[in-house]
Amino acid sequence: MFSSLMLVSLLVLTLPIMSSIFNTYKNSTFPHHVKNTISYAFITSLIPTMMFIHSGQETIISNWHWMTMQTLKLSLSFKLDYFSMIFVPVALFVTWSIMEFSLWYMHSDPYITRFFKYLLTFLITMMILVTANNLFQLFIGWEGVGIMSFLLIGWWYGRTDANTAALQAILYNRIGDIGFIMAMAWFLFNTNTWDLQQIFMLDPNLTNLPLLGLLLAATGKSAQFGLHPWLPSAMEGPTPVSALLHSSTMVVAGVFLLIRFHPLMENNKTIQSLTLCLGAITTLFTAICALTQNDIKKIIAFSTSSQLGLMIVTIGINQPYLAFLHICTHAFFKAMLFMCSGSIIHSLNDEQDIRKMGGLFNAMPFTTTSLIIGSLALTGIPFLTGFYSKDLIIETANTSYTNAWALLMTLIATSLTAVYSTRIIFFALLGQPRFLPLTSINENNPFLINSIKRLLIGSVFAGFFISNNIYPTTVPEMTMPTYMKLTALAVTILGFTLALELSLMTHNLKLEHSTSVFKFSNLLGYYPTIMHRLPPLANLSMSQKSASLLLDSIWLENILPKSISQFQMKTSILISTQKGQIKLYFLSFLITLTLSMLLFNLHE
Amino acid sequence: MSLVHINIFLAFTVSLVGLLMYRSHLMSSLLCLEGMMLSLFVMATMTVLNTHFTLASMMPIILLVFAACEAALGLSLLVMVSNTYGVDHVQNLNLLQC
């Protein structure tokens, strides 16, 4: 019953897509159908999850044998284990709220039915990714979420920036896919399969190469340092897209992949160190970049990137279950933060610059409440949602035998989380209003209120609820000195007080010319500026010069023909002293010839 | 020498003198060059055929090919002179700059 219910809930999701050939697609109630479908799928998937929590029994459903290529058997198989069983209801819950939110946000969009179809297709491919038991099915889901991300980021395709951002997302994801395919090829060669069970049973020895490939794939999909610029650019899409894809679901696919392969990763210390350092660099760098951004969605995007770095750090200290817990709790408050920012943006008539917001504390009380609770949950205030995962991660990192530099980076990034959260709250909510006087501030719509309310309750209670009901996997560190236990809380409070003091102190000062540190942080560390211009220019000019200049014009034209003609012309100008008296020269030639012939012939 | 040989030798000599002594047109010099080539060709062919020296019967043909190349070169020089002055009088040539 467990397996069939799960399959039913996954199947229910595909129904609205298939109904698009009928007339219901043209109705204006199609979005409502989609939202209801997702809520039914959520409730249906709760039953297998509760059965799993009760019994702890994992399932693999292997349905349809697709093809066999000599010794490789590919079939449609779903792995319903700890990770997918808990992630599916969480993702469906968050998606349900986001769908309801986008009923309000995209209300005036003429293609709203297509929007919902795209969101639903994205959700289906994400479910395929999460429940995949073999790498091929995972790859189908992987590519599917990439394509839907492209379509949804470029939703307003008339805008050049949106098209560029969508293309940027595809290109960076593609570079990650190279790693994925390399890992698939290695597994096919060395373990003769793409099934996760067989790979883990065989437990190959030298797993550096495939794990490096998987790390590259995670870097691309989860926007780690090196392949990160697509995530802030992806904020060109509508706010529901940012809330669903680029905070809760798609970007965690990379982390999820690494979590799936934890049996291989726990034996490979090198890859763990690499992962740790990569995550630490990412989380600190993106937190620094978030400090001076002026677009509210970009700050939240960088916050997502920083939290993803934290998840990668957790995998690097060999705690995949903690990383997964952070994925689930992070989905709640991050989606809610995006939805609150969407509510603010729509109320201020599409204004996204925090320098033009202010004083919303009294004008939009509900959004204010949820924004503050979301920020507190994000920074890991005790006993809200973020605390159950984030504080555990910091504690485990503090007490484990790990790279001290990476740990320091992570702690600094944790305090910076508090700083930029304070920045958002200070600029958007407090102070006097800086927006235009003619406002349309309205939070009366039940879609908006209900969806944010659901995620609000989730942000407060979900951490407690989930961590009390899952079965224990790795034993957390029980004893540590008091100062270590309070480290996360201390740096967070430090960040809050510092940010508040600085903001209040400099609030009425004149804006000076930007220092170089400010410019570094505001321009994303100059990374996109350099990397989007220099390597393509170098590659293209090198290829043009070597192909056309080197081969064609130098070898074929210049080396012999033109050089000989140049040489001849120059030397003949140099050494000619003649005056052009040709007849005289010819005549002297004739006389010499005649004389010589006479002399030599009349000799005998 | 036989009469035929003297005949052709005389033709060659007349062309040579005409190549080296001419009045004003560069074109006449080039024509005489062709005449020299023609007489050489006939002489070579006749000698080869008379002595049945079959292996050397390529020589006149190759001579013809190279003479064609040099005629082309000469004509291109003529064209260059003519481009500058309109006529190919030899007395113009002292003003040519390379």
UniProtKB/TrEMBL annotation, chain A:
Residues 132-416 form the NADH:quinone oxidoreductase/Mrp antiporter transmembrane domain. GO terms for molecular function: NADH dehydrogenase (ubiquinone) activity. Residues 420-600 form the NADH dehydrogenase subunit 5 C-terminal domain. Keywords: Electron transport, Membrane, Mitochondrion, Mitochondrion inner membrane, NAD, Respiratory chain, Signal, Translocase, Transmembrane, Transmembrane helix, Transport, Ubiquinone. Its EC number is 7.1.1.2. It catalyses: a ubiquinone + NADH + 5 H(+)(in) = a ubiquinol + NAD(+) + 4 H(+)(out). Its main location: mitochondrion. The keyword Membrane applies. Core subunit of the mitochondrial membrane respiratory chain NADH dehydrogenase (Complex I) which catalyzes electron transfer from NADH through the respiratory chain, using ubiquinone as an electron acceptor. Essential for the catalytic activity and assembly of complex I. This is NADH-ubiquinone oxidoreductase chain 5. The gene is ND5.
From TrEMBL, chain B:
The chain crosses the membrane at residues 6-22, 29-49, 61-81. It is found in: Mitochondrion inner membrane. Signal peptide: none annotated. InterPro entries: NADH_UbQ_OxRdtase_chain4L/K, NUOK/Mnh_C1-like. It holds the Pfam family Oxidored_q2. It catalyses: a ubiquinone + NADH + 5 H(+)(in) = a ubiquinol + NAD(+) + 4 H(+)(out). Its EC number is 7.1.1.2. It is an enzyme of class 7 (translocase). GO terms for cellular component: mitochondrial inner membrane; respiratory chain complex I. GO terms for molecular function: NADH dehydrogenase (ubiquinone) activity; oxidoreductase activity, acting on NAD(P)H. It is a multi-pass membrane protein. GO terms for biological process: ATP synthesis coupled electron transport. Its main location: mitochondrion. Keywords: Electron transport, Membrane, Mitochondrion, Mitochondrion inner membrane, NAD, Respiratory chain, Translocase, Transmembrane, Transmembrane helix, Transport, Ubiquinone. Core subunit of the mitochondrial membrane respiratory chain NADH dehydrogenase (Complex I) which catalyzes electron transfer from NADH through the respiratory chain, using ubiquinone as an electron acceptor. Part of the enzyme membrane arm which is embedded in the lipid bilayer and involved in proton translocation. Belongs to the complex I subunit 4L family. Core subunit of respiratory chain NADH dehydrogenase (Complex I) which is composed of 45 different subunits. This is NADH-ubiquinone oxidoreductase chain 4L. It comes from Equus caballus.
